[in-house]
Structures are given as C-alpha cells and as structure tokens.
Amino acid sequence: MPSALTTPPTIPAGTLCAGPQPVLVAAGDLLLRPWQHADVPAFLAAYDDPAIQRWHTRRPSSADDVRAWFAEYRLDWAQERGAHWAVTSGGAVLGRIAVRGMDLADGVAGCAYWVVPAARGAGVAARALTTVTAWALGVAGFHRLELNHSTRNQASCRVATRAGFLLEGTKRSAAVHADGRHDMHLHARIRAGAQHPAAG
C-alpha cells in the first residue's frame, strides 16, 4: 500500500492540468505559447547552433525527433510534470523556456531555456524567465524554482541573475558535457513573502 503524505501538497494534483497550458505575455512584445507543429523547422534549426549544442547535451537529430519531443511536452502538461513554451515575437521563434521536473507535493520545479543566435543580447531570455517565474510562483502555486547551469556558461548566469534567481552555490562535477564534467551553479527563487520555521 503506498504511503501517504503527512502534510498537504503545495499544489493539489489536477490543479494545473485542469486547464490548457497558459499563453504568457512578456515585456518587449514577447509571446510565450505552447509549441506547435509549424515550429518544427525552427526548433530543429536552433540545435545547429554551437552554443546551444554545447550547453544542451540532449538534442533532436530530425524533424521526427522534434515532433516526438513536442508530443512529450504535451504529455508533460497533461501529467503535471512540466510546461514548455516557444518564446516568440511577431510569430518568429526566438527561443525556448520550460518549467520541468514539477514536484507538486513540495511545490518545487526547475527552469531551462535557450535563445537563437539572432535574438541574443536583447534580454529575451531574462524577460521570458521573469514572466514564467511570475506565473509559476504566482497563479500556478509553486514555492521554489531552481535553475542549474555550467559555471563556464556566463551568459546563462547573467540571465538567472537578471531574473532574480539568487546563486545558492556550486554543485561540483555535477553534469557531463561534450568536453567532460562541469561544475554547476545552482540558482533559485522562492515565492515572495514565504515564511520559514525557525531553526531549533
């Protein structure tokens, strides 16, 4: 017989998937929406970029792979495991952002993102992350969001900092990239006004 939680879940099961994954509007005319079939070529082309290849070790190799990923994304929402958005402006795909590894009981999830080369340097990732964070820690009901990146990925570190994710520490030799093991920075944000019990 499965064990039962002794505390109520932060987000009751069925809360998120009761409705469609939301479309979010970010500053600077950015629209964050679920991935669509028409996005397959843009998604696949993004992974031709050396920087995206360097920091994202899992990548699709064909249009069929992308379609399979999009199916996984839809299933993630239906099963309350994650939410994946295309970051767009004027209909063009500028990047990807996701809230994944959702733990509804503890109210914790992780964030991940990339931006295509043509959109870099304009604050796209930081604006998208800020918007997704406001949704996750607000209406969605999460308590804590985490973000991991290689200590060598200075651009990702700047995005995390601009979006208010505090650097909590370094996870030594925590991830494998094409050039070997990397130390990883752990950033996090918690819900505004969150209270913690006194240590004792």
Summarize the structure.
The chain has 200 residues and is of the alpha+beta class. Helices cover 26% and strands 33% of the residues.
Structural class: alpha+beta
Can you count the beta strands? Answer: 8
Order of neighbouring strands in the sheet with most strands: 1-2-3-4-5-6-8-7
Mean pLDDT: 94
Strand content: 25-35%
Give the N-to-C terminal Cα separation: 34 Å
Helix content: 25-40%
Main sheet makeup:
8 strands, mixed
Q: Mind telling me the C-alpha Rg? A: 17 Å
Give helix and strand order, one letter per element, not per position: EEHHHEEEHEHEE
Sum up the structure in keywords.
200 residues; alpha+beta; 5 helices; disordered C terminus
Write the layout of secondary structure elements.
Blueprint: E1 24-26, E2 30-34, H1 40-46, H2 50-55, H3 63-78, E3 82-89, E4 92-103, E5 108-115, H4 124-137, E6 144-150, H5 154-162, E7 166-177, E8 180-190
Parallel strand pairs: 5-6
Antiparallel strand pairs: 1-2, 2-3, 3-4, 4-5, 6-8, 7-8
Helix pairs in contact: 4-5
